[in-house]
Structures are given as C-alpha cells and as structure tokens.
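#help-structures
NK: newbie question, is this the right format to request a structure? protein is LanC-like protein 3
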Amino acid sequence: GGQNVHKDRQLQSTAFPSPDPSVASVMENTRCFANRFSDYKGALLPGQSAQDAVPAVRATIDKILKKVPVDDCDGGLYDGPAGVAYMLYHVSECPLFSEQRELYLQAAKRIIDNMRAAFLLGGAGIYAVAALIYKSLGSADFVKPLTKFRNLWEVCAPISFLECGSDELFVGRAGYLCAALVLNKDQITYICQAIIESGKQYARRKRKPFPLMYSYYGTEYLGAAHGLSSVLQMLLSYQDALSGAEKDLVWQSVDFLMNQEQNCNWPAELGAIIERENELVHWCHGAPGVAYLFAKAYLINKKPQYLDTCIRCGELVWQKGLLKKGPGICHGVAGSAYVFLLLYRLTGNSKYIYRAQRFAEFLFTEEFKSGSHSVTSIYSLFEGLSGTVCFLVDLLQPDQSEFPLFTVFV
C-alpha cells in the first residue's frame, strides 16, 4: 500500500549509459539530460533576481492551488495535499512574499484542516505542519496538533512496531525524529534508544561487520528515502540524547557508510555494485540524499573528510543531476539543485549558487518540458511542483535554504 509506494516506483528503473564524464555529454542518457552549461566563472546569473523569480513562483503556486485535490487525504506530506500546505507555509515565511503571506497561510490552513502515525506518509508529518501553520497564523490551536504529535511517540517506541521496518524515514522512527526537528520537542531519547537498539539487534542478527544496520521491506537501503543515511542523520541531529557508547556506534556507522562510496555515489542497497549505465543519482537513492548525512557530520565535528565527501557528491550532481524524472525534490531536478544550496551554506562558495541557478533555469527550458517524464502528483511536495517552489524560493534566500523538512542546520 501507501508505505511501499516510493519503493515500487524506484524499482521501475530505466537504463542510463554513462561512461567517464569527458564523453558523457555526447552520449544519450535515459536517466538525465546532458549538462551543457558552462561552470562558474566568477559571476552569478543576472536574470535570476527577485523581481524575475517572484512572479514565476506566484504563478506556479496559483497553478498548484487550482490543481490540488483538497478533499483527498492520501499521500501525507510526500505526495498529498499536506505537502502543498507545507510549501505555502515555507513561502509565507519568505519576506519577498509578505503581500501574499496571509493568503498563503489561510490556503495552507484550509488544506491541513481537511486532512484527517508516520512522517512523510502519514499523521506525524501532518500534525507537525499543522502546528507550524497555526503558530504562524497566531492561533492558539497549534497546541492540538502538537499534542497529537507528541502522543504518537508511544506508537513508534516499541522496537518492532512496523513489520516492514520500524526505523526508516517515510513511515518509521527516523521520520518521527525528522518531524520533531521542525518542532523541536521531547520524548526523543526513547525514540533514539529504540532506533539504536533495533539497529544493533539487526546488525548482530545479520552478522554485519559494523554496529548499526536497518532494513525496509526486507531490503538494506543506504540512501535518504528509506535507508541508513537518513537514520544516522537523525541520530546525529539528536546526539545530545545519546550516551557516549551510543554516539560511538553512530559515528562508526557514519564512517562505515562513507567507505561504501563508489565513484562519488552510493548504491541504493548495501553490497550492490553501481552499474554506471544504470546509476541512481537521486535524493531518495544515491549521493544527492547521502550528502545531508555527511553535511551534518561535518557541522558537528568539522572533520574535512566529511566536507570532501559532500563536495564530491556535488560534482556528481553537476554532471548527472538534470534528471528526467520531473521537477520534484525526491528524484527530480529541484532535489539535485538543493545539493548546491547545501554546499553553498557549508562552504560560502558562490559557485554553488551559480550551479543552482543553472538548474533552476533548466526547469523552464523546452528541452526539460518535452523530455521529462510526466508526474502523477504534479502539485505534490516530493514529486511535483510544490517542492520545486520551495527550491526556487530558497534560491532567493540561499543563506536560509534547507531541503524541505530535512534540516541539517538545526
């Protein structure tokens, strides 16, 4: 059902020939468009200032609001109306849209009030976003969804509360922690301990040569959507809730994952060999999502190897990130471009803003519109235009940019 929707989509892979980068532009790719842009030469693109971008963003939002099925409660934040509500909240926080602030927040409230545990595919995420929207509107009602959110922790505290895998981001405990990061709330220690205990038990049972591992629907994923990297990222985000011994296990696992790199990328699952012609370079599976774990690791302990790993991810994304799977943040062009905004915040190097600008420009080209796959949830946060809007708005305020609901800077 719903929990497995993303996994099923990811398994419908198409081939993607990619030899070494020098000849990559000559070859025809089925996963990504060739990046024909020249790289940064010291100047940002002039045509992407606020007065150019703001009307385009507003027009896109109008289009989304006409399309979003407000009475459809499926999909949660991932591909349901709740994700649109989050996008409207996000845009309303940007000073460039202060004239629309009230309008966007009221629209967000209408959507969220229509929605009736799990983060990106269920209740926890909806409660978290509802609390943000009510708070932004100055409504005392924000206490209600917050209370519902807190009560969910009892659901996900038992070690094996979900048969398919209790720890990953979309339906498991890592997602609850991810939502709590936005809200900054308690009961976290129990959840962290449950994730660590679960990972230890799994690693022991499967005789892994490293301390923590997880599976989702029987697959040992490594990437951000269902895998080890986002689970470890959430544990690092709450490392104050961990004992010294637990922290050691997490850092050992971070270094283990760093060593799984193959040509600046990570396979979708543990032990797989990346076939270059069929390589996944997505936020959900691969370097564009794994980068956030190493960004978090670098922000905490400043070891240069973590930053170097992020930078290599960025180079791969510049080559292969103009994805044909649509405009979204999960496995689309905006998700790729967010890696550049992440790197800009980590390094202060304007080259990364320039690269993000180029990817933004590409979204509006005829080549992209005619050559990219059609998306079923075109208005959605993760697969459709709501995530793209978040990226375009963050490009206008790169110092505050964050991949939606996946913060590393808190």
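mod (FA): yep, format's fine, and the tokens are attached above. The longest helix spans residues 50-67.
NK: thank you!
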